Amino acid sequence: MNKIGKALIVLFILAVAGLYAVIYVVPSITGALTPTLILQYGNLSISDQSKCYIVRDERVYTAPAAGGTTYYTADGIKVRTGVRIMDVNGVADYFADFNGVVCYYYDGYENLFTPENMASLTQDQVEGLDITIHNAVADSVSQGAVLYKICNNTKWYILSWIQPGSIGKYQEGNSVTINFPDGEYVKANIERIVNNDESWLVVMSTTMYYEAFARERVTDAEIVTSEYSGIVIPNGSITSKDGAIGVYVKRKSGEYAFTQIKVKMSDGENSIVEMGSFTDEAGNKINTVDVYDEILKSPEQG
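Below the sequence we write its predicted C-alpha cells.
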C-alpha cells in the first residue's frame, strides 16, 4: 500500500472517531457538566429585624431609710407570695407580696413602660430616651434608693415600631416568633396595631418565660411573621411553560422534563413548594416534585 492510501485510511479513522465523539461523547460530557441540584425538605420564614421594647407588669420597691442590706433571694428567681426577699437592717424586712420574678436591675422607666399606657407611646418618644440598666445590689442604701422589683412573669409585652412597607405582614390575633440576640426565643400574640404617624406600633404579648425579660428594656430582635415547611427551591430554578410554573426534573433516561409546582411561600430568594402532588384550581390532581428529585439550576437549559 502506497503512502497516499495509508494517509486516506488514517484520515478515515480520524473522521469516524470524531463523528463518534460528536454523537456520543460530547452529549455525555455536556450532561455531566449541566448544573443541577437535589431537592431537600426545609423551612423558610418571613421576618423583620426590629428594635423591641419590653413592657412588664412590675412593682419597684425603695428603701424607706438608709441602712445596710441583707439579701435572701437571688436575681431572676421566681417567688411566691410571702417569700423573704431582703432586709434593710434595722429599718424594714421585705417579703414578696405577689407571685413573680425578683429582679435587682432597673432603668428608671418602670412607670412609663406599663401595660396601661404602652399603646400611647410613640417611636420618637421612646427612641429619645437614655435607657441605662442599673444594678440595685449594694452593701448599704440611702433613703429612697431602689432595692428590687418583682415582675409578673405570667404575661408580658413586646413593643416594636414597624415601617408601612412591612406592616401588611402583621395582623391582630396572629402569632409571631421573636428571636432574641442571645439565641432564646418566645412565641407571642399580636394584641394591637396602632398607627403612629410614619410607623405602626405593634403590641405583642407572651406567656413564655425569657430569662432576661425582667432585666432588659430594649433589644434588637428578629420578628418572624410567617414560617412554612416543604421542599425548598431557589427562585432562579423556577420557570414557566404554557401558563404553568415549574422546574425541569431529571428522568431515568437522563432527559429533563418540565414538572409543574405549587408555591406555598417565597422570601424573594427561595420558595417553599408542595411535594408529591397537589390539586390545581380546576380540581385536577397534579403530580409534582418530591424530596431528592434532581432539577436544573438554570431552567433555560431544559
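The CA atoms of residues 137 and 210 lie 22 Å apart.
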